[in-house]
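Backbone-to-sequence.
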């Protein structure tokens, strides 16, 4: 009897312990939280809830993906606990660690986020992507220090991140602002050897040279600003967030849709576009206009004039008008045989945005019947081709279409200005002077041509241009 009682007591104790453990586990189990929001994009919230279910049933990878999906839509406060749970399960996850730091950063907790970014640096990268994440983390720490008005700390962090172009940019900018342009020059010139046509660094180069009183060299740097493009991101936020935004909603559907298809696939392409458009409904979604433009493109390729008119009526009722709509309307009138109305639409489209294809259609329309108008459009085609070559830094190749443009449009100063630019950068000084003079003869108020000509006339031999 005593033995049986003892056995029963052991069973009761075991049940109590196990039951208590199960209750404690359930109480401490992380529950993924999804915002209680109603968004214009009807797909986002159901897809976030799907990520939440996967996280609840999965491991650290699923929790990280849930946090990233929340980050992509700007739900930073909800992403934070998701990343913390991922790290509780796997403290070596660099993606979760960076996501946590970024979520804190976006909610304005800079000091706390800097500590979490520092933990990213403590993790050993196992891939090239993770190695880049370390650069981003150190750069983000510098930006946090700037927002906290800790200029010296920021400068030190950017210096540690040397050879990462965004950090070099911030470091050089701080040096120039602090009156140390001489120290900034080697940093700027090192980056320009690697990123030759960076607008950001040519602009810093100009500022540094101006601060040092080297005005002619500064002018030369300014000419390179005109030839350059935005190549170095001042912030990594867009680079990091854009793929996360495309994890859910209409953005995901657009990402999965191919950018270009052949004529044989137009029907399938249109079907996918209509599926996306139907998912949007009548709610104002930023991506709607891009989808509508693709639908117009498909209707134009299939020469569905009535469908084009129907779509344009809907878009205009919503207060929209742009060059592509006018161009498509012209194409629809052309299909219906009304070339006069087509030409009117194409001309209006060009007032909003230059376009090679539209100029070609108008040149063909005017033809031998109105050679002056035809040549004007052919000249614009040549000019746009020349400028395109210039923007691609193919200076010698640009001269041929630009010269053709001056022959077709003898009274237009723009082509002469760009001929001057090509020769300026090719260090063909006499040809550059002649082109700038011709530009000013046709348009005396052309300020850039006047400044370039004055620069060339200041000395017999200018500072050598960068090629």
């Amino acid at each position: 009897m005593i033995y049986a009682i003892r056995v029963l007591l052991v069973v009761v104790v075991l049940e109590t312990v196990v039951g208590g453990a199960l209750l404690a586990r359930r109480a401490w189990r992380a529950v993924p939280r999804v915002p209680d929001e109603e968004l214009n994009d009807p797909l986002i919230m159901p897809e976030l809830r799907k990520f939440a279910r996967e996280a609840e049933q999965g491991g650290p990878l699923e929790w990280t993906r849930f946090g990233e999906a929340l980050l992509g839509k700007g739900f930073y406060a909800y992403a934070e606990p998701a990343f913390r749970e991922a790290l509780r399960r796997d403290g070596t996850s660099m993606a979760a660690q960076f996501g946590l730091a970024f979520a804190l950063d976006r909610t304005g907790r800079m000091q706390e986020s800097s500590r979490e970014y520092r933990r990213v640096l403590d993790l050993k990268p196992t891939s090239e992507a993770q190695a880049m994440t370390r650069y981003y983390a150190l750069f983000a720490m510098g930006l946090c220090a700037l927002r906290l008005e800790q200029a010296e700390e920021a400068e030190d962090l950017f210096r540690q991140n040397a050879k990462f172009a965004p950090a070099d940019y911030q470091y050089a900018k701080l040096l120039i602002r602090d009156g140390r342009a001489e120290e900034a020059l080697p940093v700027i010139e090192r980056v320009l050897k690697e990123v030759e046509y960076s607008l950001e660094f040519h602009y810093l180069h100009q500022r540094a040279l101006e601060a040092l009183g080297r005005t002619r060299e500064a002018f030369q740097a300014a000419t390179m600003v005109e030839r350059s493009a935005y190549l170095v991101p001042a912030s990594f936020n867009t680079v990091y967030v854009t793929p996360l935004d495309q994890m859910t909603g209409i953005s995901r559907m657009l990402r999965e849709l191919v950018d270009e298809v052949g004529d044989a696939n137009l029907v399938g392409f249109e079907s996918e576009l209509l599926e996306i458009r139907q998912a949007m409904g009548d709610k104002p979604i930023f991506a709607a206009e891009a989808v509508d433009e693709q639908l117009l493109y498909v209707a134009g390729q299939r020469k569905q004039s009535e469908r084009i008119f129907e779509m344009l009526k809907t878009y205009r009722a919503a207060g929209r008008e742009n060059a592509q709509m006018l161009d498509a309307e012209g194409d629809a009138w052309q299909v219906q045989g009304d070339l006069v109305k087509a030409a009117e639409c194409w001309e209006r489209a060009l007032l909003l945005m230059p376009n090679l294809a539209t100029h070609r259609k108008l040149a063909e329309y005017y033809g031998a019947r109105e050679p002056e108008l035809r040549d004007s459009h052919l000249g614009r085609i040549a000019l746009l081709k020349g400028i395109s070559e210039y923007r691609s830094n193919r200076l010698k190749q640009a001269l041929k279409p630009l010269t053709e443009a001056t022959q077709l449009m003898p009274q237009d100063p723009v082509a002469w200005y760009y001929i001057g630019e090509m020769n300026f950068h090719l260090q063909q000084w006499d040809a550059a002077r002649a082109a700038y003079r011709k530009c000013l003869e046709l348009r005396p108020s052309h300020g850039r041509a006047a400044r370039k000509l004055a620069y060339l006339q200041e000395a017999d031999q200018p500072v050598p241009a960068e090629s």
